[in-house]
Structures are given as C-alpha cells and as structure tokens.
Amino acid sequence: MQVEVDVPKCVASGQCVMLAPDVFDQRDEDGMVVLLDANPDESQRGVVEESATVCPAAAIRVSDK
Questions:
Q1: Distances in Å between the alpha carbon of 25 and those of 7, 58, 65?
Q2: Got the DSSP string for the chain?
Q3: Is the pLDDT of residue 13 over 80?
Q4: What CATH code is carried by the domain that includes residue 40?
Q5: Ramachandran region of residue 16, left (φ > 0), alpha (ψ -120 to 50) or beta?
C-alpha cells in the first residue's frame, strides 16, 4: 500500500492522526499533516483508508504498490 498526502490541501482537522497515529502526525506550528509512513504495513489498511475517506479536504490518497 502506498500513501500520499497533499499538504497544501490539508485543513489540519487531525482526523487522520486520531485514526492512524503510526502513519500520520501533525506539525506543531500549524497542525498540517505529516506523513510518517508512506508504505505502512497491510495491517494498517483499514484505518488508513478510513483516514482518506473522512479527510475533509480529501488530502490523502491510498493506492496499491
């Protein structure tokens, strides 16, 4: 699985961090998304895909390698 984020689209809602804290974080200064793991383990697929679905800015994309 490959995860990509479009940081300029991010609205710093933090939904992704709450759902998948091993994959996403937020910058301290502005709350924008930080991608911690662009190739997370398959066991993370459910929460990563949910993060992409609930992202209010549609700033997360998940694809297969």
A1: 12, 16, 22
A2: -EEEE-GGG-----HHHHH-TTTEEE-TTT--EEES-SS--GGGHHHHHHHHHH-TT--EEEE--
A3: yes
A4: 3.30.70.20
A5: alpha
Q: How far apart are CA 59 and CA 56, in angstroms?
A: 8
Q: What is the pLDDT of residues 36-65, one digit of tens each?
A: 999 999 999 999 999 999 999 999 999 997
Provide, rounded to the nearest whole percent, the portion of the chain with pLDDT above 90: 98
The total number of structural domains that make up the chain:
1
Q: Which residues pair with 26 in a beta bridge?
A: 33
pTM above 0.90? yes
* Domain of residue 58, residue span: 2-63
